[in-house]
Amino acid sequence: MQDxxxxxxxxxxxxxxxxxxLAEDGGLVLSCKGQIEGIGTAHARFSAKDGTGDVLAAVTxxxxxxxxxxxxxxxxxxxxxxxxxxxxxxxxxHRVVHGGTRYETPVAVNAAVMADLERLEPLAPLHQPHNLxxxxxxxxxxxSLLQVACFDTSFHCGHAEVVDRYALPDxxxxxxxxxxxxxxxxxxxxxxxxxxxxxxxxxxxxxVAHLGSGASMCAIxxxxxxxxxxxxxxxxxxxxxxxxxxxxxxxxxxLIKEKKYDVGDLERMLYHDSGLKGISGISxxxxxxxxxxxxxxxxxxxxxxxxxxxxxxxxxxxxGGLDGIVFTAGIGENMPGIRxxxxxxxxxxxxxxxxxxxxxxxxxxxxxxxxxxxWVIPTDEEKMIALHTLDVLRGRRAAGAA
Length: 402
Known about the structure:
Elements: E1 2-10, E2 14-22, E3 28-37, E4 45-50, E5 55-60, H1 69-83, E6 87-96, E7 107-108, H2 111-119, H3 128-141, E8 147-151, H4 161-164, H5 170-175, H6 184-197, H7 199-202, E9 205-211, E10 215-221, E11 224-228, H8 250-258, H9 263-272, H10 275-280, H11 286-291, H12 295-319, E12 324-328, H13 329-334, H14 336-345, H15 355-360, E13 373-376, H16 381-401
Parallel strand pairs: 1-6, 6-8, 9-12, 12-13
Antiparallel strand pairs: 1-2, 2-3, 3-4, 4-5, 7-8, 9-10, 10-11
Helix pairs in contact: 6-16, 12-14
């Protein structure tokens, strides 16, 4: 039987998976990949393709059929069990959103690691519980199977201290109240890919816009994170599907004192009822908002584009200039109108959009003469996780051989 690695990437509204077989030359070969997206919405969808892109499954669920991550995991588990029955599964790699200050690199999961990661759940309540639930589910099925946690915070380790400090008492900083940054697996993949697909900017000053249901931006210089829009939790920075983004901290104080909100009320509002959903009153899905003629839908999209443009300017300042912009993730890769709006706002930086290239979703979407180039590069967090899992597997095998 051929050795294989399973990757599980559990997001706030989706569960993605990939299966990679280990080639004789030591590389990874994609066997299949897919996802359940739109979890908790009226149009959840399951899709899967093999390594050549041929469709293996395409199912749209009715309202209430995939209400939460548990039901999504159950449906995926049954399908995957049949799919990998002829493979020798040697490891499972997981995206784990928060690694805190302790985990700067991927790590094999054990009881002590799980206890550490459980303590970080309050800092990423939309993600961390789902990430860890998937690890427990795999362990329950196969306790001896290697599982590797790959962290979204790791890529941002190494920032200058001034970047990660809040202007709070020093004791709080020492306790871990600081900026961490997220979406690091996506940014790491883009940084690794740039030398191949956009070598002219790979060693330069680049802002990557990871725009999806969860959204953030990262300033990267010579392949390393310099600054990012997300901070202590995944609430900071850009407005997202259901999350508020940067907020005056006086607002929660006002809501507690004057509106009598409790902690549960605040958490539900800031994580689940804000962002594009809160502004529009319609949906957290950009596709729904683009298709709507409701003025509130347009306002939500305009606010999103404005904030992306504003953060782009701030990150360009952090870099001391700008050589390129990369759009990635669901919105960044598939919504030319959003990209056009951001590029138009970035004209002052020297961005000159090529409308035809943008509409076609080409690799480079700016004109040849644009001082700052803009690119559309699909991210692949699952491939990054698989590579990290393979590294941990090889390290354990080498240690065993020694």
